[in-house]
């Protein structure tokens, strides 16, 4: 589908959340993630309460209605009472704040006079406190892109949420190693006009944050939330976009989804449809002898089957909203929030699920629906089923407005799934346990941007554009420059190739992780500079170290001229009669890395009398 973004009035903004490699934001615990078994577990329940305005946030209220319990896994050596909400938070981590101020200066944003930490109500279990601490650091910045400037209304610093481990029924398990890791949040204004500009803005902001040298690396350490709206639509926030390459596709799919929802609204208007009560009815008796496994299991497990009539919606529930998903799918996503497996609706081919035509007719009679109407069925425990249908009713009512404001999660294929309603202003209130901070920018220096570093590497070190980019973006960039300064007899391009690519190429070759610390590379470069080893042997040395955790430079030391000649003579004599090329391979195999290749060839010729 060809999309005219200007015609459809696309407005797009993006929020970047980058984890930092400092201590945690409100305590002295390390920002390290753990994979070993936790030392202890604490169980909690959370509930939404009224904020300063006297209102309960709509998104928090939905989370409370799920009636979940939460297990929090902790470690005695890397988590503390702050993460468990058993001790007051410490002041803002100064190093993390410094990084946020560096990013602010690069983006020409003005730091606020005083940084006041706020509480943001979050009762989905990801924070033990029931809120997330966040603070505005600076405002009114600007990002230059190839398609025009993008405003930066705010730069914040906040604490990362706990990591979800598993969910079993109404019990959700989180791990507290991630909770409290500092996040820099940079939000753009709704100035982005195309999907490609959105991707470019995300890439550039990510580059700026990585230029500080304190951005964590790896999957999950940086996340993008994309806000999208079109003319006659509504703002929808898509959370958890991790792959930058997917941003244009996600934006396009959301545009199409909103256009389809607007079309559904227009179709309802053309049918003179009106909102109705949609009374929930128990229709279990209709399916007393059903052949549908899902419905039969629900009844056998003590549940019931409930349904609602959906007047004027015949044919609309099967209308596609995004690739592979229909309006019925959107309704099902809202129902699943309350723990049910899904729903059935009358626009589906119900006989495929074991529901007979006679049962379909009986449901229609029991609900009193006509030819232009639809129905929806949910089978589960009574309380879950009724809550799920109430959520479906709310979503059906929103169809008359078109596109609801909501938060959705990004799927790997670019589609999205409903998460919760768009939060309101009532969820924010001041944090009284953290002393406000005064930002100091006089002693903060601007970081060298990675793009500038790339240009410098090309000009000063004569690196190719590809190698300069690899070196500049690498987390080993600082060590690389140190090696170049320390070993002037080695070409910078050679140092870059060895230091930045050897481990990856060996990992691919041996199909397992191969790594060595910077100190090992430093020792190898020292030996190369002194001329005591050859370049050819470096991969063998790195692999051997990865396997044994020992660097044996003596094993690979170059032979002196006399020693080399004696060794070549010995090997040639022991393999007398071999054709020249085979002899070369034999000698090179025996003396790998211990002599100059050209000198070895000369000696083989000499002793084979060629």
The proportion of residues forming helix, as a percent range, comes to 25-40%
Q: What kind of assembly state do the chains in view correspond to?
A: single chain
- The structural domain count equals 4
| Gap between N and C termini | 71 Å
Largest sheet: 11 strands, mixed
* Mean pLDDT score: 92
From the alpha-carbon coordinates, what is the Rg to the nearest angstrom? 32 Å
Count the DSSP helices: 17
Which structural class do you get from the secondary structure elements? alpha+beta
Mass-distribution shape: elongated
Low-confidence stretches: none
* Share in β-strands: 15-25%
* Total strands: 21
Overview of this structure, please?
The protein is of the alpha+beta class and 610 residues long. The protein folds into 4 domains: 11-269, no CATH class; 274-399, 2-Layer Sandwich (Gyrase A, domain 2), CATH 3.30.1360.30; 475-552, no CATH class; 561-608. It is built from 17 helices and 21 strands. The chain has helices at 58-65, 94-106, 195-211, 247-270, 293-300, 327-336, 357-367, 382-398, 450-461, 465-473, 477-486, 492-510, 518-530, 538-548, 561-574, 580-590, 597-608; strands at residues 11-19, 40-44, 69-74, 110-111, 117-121, 131-145, 148-159, 163-168, 171-175, 182-187, 222-229, 236-241, 281-282, 304-310, 320-322, 325-326, 344-345, 374-380, 406-410, 416-421, 428-430. The strands form 4 sheets. Strands 1, 4, 5, 6, 7, 10, 11, 12, 19, 20 and 21 form an 11-stranded mixed β-sheet that branches. The longest helix has 24 residues, at 247-270. It is elongated.
